[in-house]
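Memo to structure team: turn this sequence into structure tokens by end of day. - J.P.
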Amino acid sequence: MEPTNVQLRSDHGFEDEATETVLSQRTVRFRRFRRNRLAVAAVIVLAVLYLVMVAFPEFFSNHFYQTHHADYVYAPPQIPRFVDEEGTFHLRPFVYPITSELDMETFNWVYTTDTSQRNHIYFFTRGYSYDLLGLFPTDIHFFGLEDPEQPLFLFGTDRLGRDVFSRILFGGRVSLTVGLVGVFLTIIIGSFMGTMSGYFSGPIDNAVQRLAEVLMSFPSIPLWAALGAALPSGWTPLQNFFAISVILSLRNWTGLARELRGKVLSFRESEYTLAAKCVGASHLHIIVRHMIPNSMSHIIVISTLSIPFMILAETSLSFLGLGIQPPSTSWGVLLQAAQQVNVVLEQPWLLLPGIFVVIAVLSFNFLGDGIRDALDPYSS
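Reply from structure team:
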């Protein structure tokens, strides 16, 4: 009986007798990740978010996020349309202009939509001046109206007449970046502490584990509130940003350190570690060449899954008024405006930043799950 073509598994990859090719571990992992559609979709969504909100928010916003429009306080969103009120289809999207009038009885702005005319939306229009990537002065924006004096509020405005869409873009730059900075610091601290604890054991292990237990015993919000309140009031928004990143990392490293400790304890008794000690390798060499590289896949997965936690933590701190402070903005700062019930009922568009928080958190979770499955290519 002739043997059928089977796929052999080895320590270095997959070998297919029919094609006589050997796939490396990297190729196997990439192919497994690519089969996870949710993870691939998460990569695309995150790439768009970081491109639009972190790299080029000035280009994609048609208003500066701090510009006040005194005549358009709590203006409703202007939804782009292709079909007018008469049912005629237009190739170029347009919005109906809105006019504002102050109600002298309630002192609220009342907005009416003028359906007799259309304001067409154009791409690559001119608007406020900015420095692209902080280097190239320009005033070109991705979209806008032909008349820059006409308002275009895709997501409406807030209580000061500021464009919510532009503020979401600029707020995303802070909220999405603080997750990366915080996780980077968490990796550095957690990897160092966890590796030292597992490798040396004894007094060092006891000291690290007791410190981790003390930090984990504190409630998160009160701890962050106390540390955030200790920040000097005269600090710049940039200094506050990095301070918040450090604060978020001071407690989040404990979970990674405890998990790495368990892995390093098993690596320490492995044959390659004993062989390195026999040839006279130093502790630093063993840690750098064997302990950390063998733990890298676990570090990557934990790091990816920690980014949503950092984003939510920054949003919570800013929502409570303990994180990023105005005039700087973040998604948490924007959600502060939606604390009151009457605001949510009358201006529901102020909750839109929360939708972007959910999208970013879910995308990072799906990405982390995909990476975790891809790094274990022999699992079912």
